[in-house]
Amino acid sequence: SLELTLYAHSVEQRRWLEAAHREFLGRVLKAHPMARNPRQCGCVLAFELEPEQRLASRASGLQDGEDPAYFHGWRDRIYHFLLDRGLLMRPLGNTVYLLPPYSISREELEACYNGMEALLGASMDWLTKQP
Fold it and tell me: What is the pTM of this model?
């Protein structure tokens, strides 16, 4: 299976994914105030979701009962938000990441980006209110 990564098509696909991620990172994630620490490493794209109301209070540290990022309680809410839009993405706490298969099409990748943009553009009331 490692040999598959050496095929010309796989190399081209990785280069295309990396370039597409770079473009999305610069166009959307780095410009959005709720996308904290946007980053890319090869074909992996990630950011932490942080609603605007939390940006102002972040200096005070975690709120009572709030988990550190990896175990953050927003994980299930983010997961279901994306699943409701046809995307099976599994966030790590409040970290949203994308590691698509090399076989992904342009349309499928665009759907992933659209879901991430929808997440960033959604009203954060659903995310921040207590269950």
Answer: 0.81
HSE at residue 102, side-chain half, CA atoms within 13 A, is 15
Query: What is the DSSP secondary-structure string of 72-128?
Result: -TTHHHHHHHHHTTT-----BTTEEEE---TT--HHHHHHHHHHHHHHHHS-THHHH
CA 99 to centroid of chain Cα atoms: 9
Tell me how far apart the alpha carbons of residues 69 and 75 are, in angstroms, rounded to a whole number. Answer: 9
CB atoms within 10 A of CB 2: 5
pLDDT in tens, 62-93: 454 454 455 567 888 899 999 999 999 989 98
